Amino acid sequence: MSKNTIELPNLKEIEKDLFKQLQIYFRVILSHILEELDVWLMENRDFKRFEYRERQSCTLETLFGPLTFKRRKYKDRQTGRRVALLDQVLKFKGSNSLSPLITDMAVDWAVRGRSYRDARDRITELLDHQAISHESIRQKVLGVKKIDHSTREGHPKKVKALFLEVDGINPSLQGMAQKTHEVKVGMVHEGWEKRHPKSKNYQLVNKSFYISLGDGEEFWEAFSRELYAQYDINEETPIIINGDGASWIRAGVDTFPMRFITMTVSI
């Protein structure tokens, strides 16, 4: 009596197939996160400065493979240029480019490895297709400018007060059995000022963003570190935190050992 034989894939094949499936899954998650952040930026932008024009498709090479999503573009009334706020806030260079993470990996592998071609081949092996040429990697290596963090941290800016707008975004993943983690967004600014001396309209002063996928404790630890690096904060610096009253947002009050710290709740 002959036995039926079952041919199973080996562990290498199982691991490779599972990695491909995870890439597809996380590509969907990343796409939804980016589109939800784009909506948040639209609703919280400087309406007087940025005039909404259109939604455009954007394609990036990411760690999870080619990613196509839509984000909004605006006319900057101050400069007359068309801009995508999502590109500016997340610090990437628009469509048809490598994600910052893949770019950093390519540059690091080129510098530490044998050659630009070797870095290209390693990126190709990781993504299962050629996403960048060895010449493009060479250009990126030549264009890298190291940031002197000691200069930034050695001369933090003095301010009269800091205003923190904190919110959580929950991207809706249609067709997925489970939703992704909440995206935590922190915006800091130094107050308001008139657009020009005779203007009746005001704008936020030196607005910047911080975004995290971690829990509340991780968010505040990293966000506060960024703030201390950028600003000369002491116990006399007034800090005003505005949010929806979620427990992780309220925890920000205990993050800064300030004498003047206020939590305001948005309704």
Report on the structure:
- The protein is an alpha/beta fold.
- It has 2 domains: 11-150, no CATH class; 151-265, no CATH class.
- Helix content is 37%, strand content 24%.
- It has helices at 11-43, 85-90, 100-112, 116-127, 134-143, 149-154, 216-230, 247-250; strands at residues 50-62, 65-76, 82-83, 97-98, 162-169, 183-189, 192-194, 202-204, 208-212, 239-243, 261-265.
- The strands form 3 sheets. A 5-stranded mixed sheet has the order 9-6-5-10-11. The chain has a 4-stranded mixed sheet with strand order 3-2-1-4. A two-stranded antiparallel sheet has the order 7-8.
- Strand 7 (192-194) and strand 8 form a beta hairpin.
- Helix 3 (100-112) crosses helix 5 (134-143).
- The longest helix has 33 residues, at 11-43.
- The radius of gyration is 23 Å and the shape is globular.
- The N and C termini lie far apart (75 Å).
Entry keywords:
267 residues; alpha/beta; four-stranded mixed β-sheet; 37% helix; 24% strand; globular
Summary of the model, kept short:
By secondary structure, the protein is an alpha/beta fold.
Oligomer: single chain
Number of domains: 2
Assess the beta-strand content as a share of residues: 15-25%
Number of helices: 8
Helical fraction: 25-40%
The computed structural class is alpha/beta
Shape: globular
Compute the separation of the termini in Å. Answer: 75 Å
**In order across it, which strands form the biggest sheet?**
9-6-5-10-11
Largest sheet geometry = 5 strands, mixed
Strands, count: 11
Q: Which residues form runs of ≥5 with pLDDT under 50?
A: 145-153
What value does the average pLDDT take? 83
From N to C, what is the helix and strand string? HEEEHEHHHHEEEEEHEHE
- Radius of gyration, CA atoms, in whole angstroms: 23 Å
